[in-house]
Specification:
There is one protein chain. Helix 1 crosses helix 2. The chain is globular. The longest helix is centred in the first third of the chain and has 17 residues, at 8-24. The protein has one domain: 2-Layer Sandwich (GMP Synthetase, Chain A, domain 3), CATH 3.30.300. With 91 residues, it is α+β, with helices and mostly antiparallel strands. It contains 2 helices and 3 strands, in the order αββαβ. 33% of the residues lie in helices and 25% in strands. Strands 1-2-3 form a 3-stranded mixed beta sheet, with helices on one face. Strand 1 (39-47) and strand 2 (53-60) form a beta hairpin.
Length: 91
């Protein structure tokens, strides 16, 4: 449940920048990742039927379940002030 309101364009930009930074560390981040096209496709705010709200960023060009890449991106989002953001990977 998110209590803060984030600027979605800023969230997307920070997630995209984290993808760029991950490229520089790619030797330390295993998994099926298309490094040439990796990037944030979308940032969204959601609300469910229970009234819970949250944020999700969709990262394209990586297989679902990228634990190491997810931790890397999550760290950079937190450093930039974006906490409790779900990260989804898609091809």
């Amino acid at each position: 449940m998110a209590s803060l309101t984030y600027d979605l364009k800023e969230l997307r930009a920070v997630a995209d920048k984290a993808c760029e930074l991950a490229f520089a560390e790619r030797e330390n981040i295993p998994g099926a990742i298309n490094w040439g096209d990796l990037g944030c496709h979308e940032a969204m705010r959601w609300e469910n039927d229970m009234g819970d709200t949250g944020y999700t960023v969709t990262i394209e060009e990586a297989s679902p379940g990228q634990q190491d890449l997810g931790l890397f991106i999550d760290h950079h989002l937190r450093v930039a002030g974006f906490h409790n953001v779900s990260i989804v990977f898609e091809w």
